[in-house]
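Hi,

Apologies if this is the wrong queue. I'm a grad student, and the batch job for Maspardin from Dioscorea cayennensis subsp. rotundata produced an output file that my downstream script rejects. I'm not sure whether the problem is my script or the file. Here is the sequence I used:
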Amino acid sequence: MKRASLSPGDYVYFKSRVPLHKISVGAKQWRYYDFGPKDVPPLICIPGIAGTADVFYKQIMFLSMKGYRVISIDIPCIWNHHEWIHAFEKFLDAINVHHVHLYGTSLGGFLSQLFAQHRPRRVKSLVLSNTFLDTHKFSAAMPWSSVVSWSPSFLLKRYILSGIHDGPHEPFIADSVDFVVGQVETLSRDDLASRLTLNANAVAVGALFLSDSFITIMDTNDYCAIPQQLKDQVSERYSGARRAILKTGGDFPFLSRPDEVNLHLQLHLMRVGVEAKLDLVQSTSKDGTAGSSSGDEKKGDKRFDNPADDNGNTGHDGTSHQPDESSGSGSSAFDEHLLSNAKLHVFVALHTVLISMQASSSIMPFMQQNCIAINVQ
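Support response: The file is valid. Your script probably expects a header line. Output copied below for reference.
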């Protein structure tokens, strides 16, 4: 398989523009990206067993340029679900973020629900993708979970990768698999063992205080490592949630179908009341930073670096984002963002009208497909 550095798209560009943050909170080491206007409530992306913070790079680049703040995390070495709840809360406190919107895939979606259940005041909305409500099925399928912490790294990697569909893929799905395989190679034995332990501990998500109207379920309709029965249970539990079904995309639609995923994420954030700060979005600078500051920062305003800000970034790694020195393409890029945003509002209006008219199943996919097409240009 291809190496991660040769994966398609703009990953190399992303790495050159978006700084990686590392922070120690107690005994936990957190690795994460934090990009976009700092006074916007963040969307926090939580990956599955095989994922890292890097797998959401397409969402970080797209949404930050739309005026949203995106934080993508690695799951640190955490061995039980109570530990996860406390560790994640301490992480949010450390980066001075109080209210969050969570986007979780697979194991990340399960952990997102657990956190929303036990810390309801902090979670404002959920986007759940190819995930599940309880781990009993995985626990039964992994009788050797009690010795997983003693297992060698190569065995853990083989077990994780065996869950990824192995067969003929269309090019974008094949590339997404190659990228994730490259990310798995970067994980330590403890990383792998702790994630498998979280996935195998028999725990179920309880009732959420969060209304279904603040939940979006985004599943792929072709195949993935999560059995369809478990995904159906999620849909039944949150019957009032918005459905965003992708016809194809495999296990990693955020990489293989980024245009559709990004659109659904943007629609979700708009629907739950997150206001994008498009006026704070700057054109990409030549020194390798972007989308993290505003015109106020150019005038010396320090409010985005103020630790007292509810959604501020403490900047533990000492990395600062420098504003662009202005370029000829700045106004053109801004106009494109305005046009794209206008198209999105048209989509939302059409979507609302169709729902109110109880549009037929043959009309709705057609409208969604065409609205997606005009917005991803």
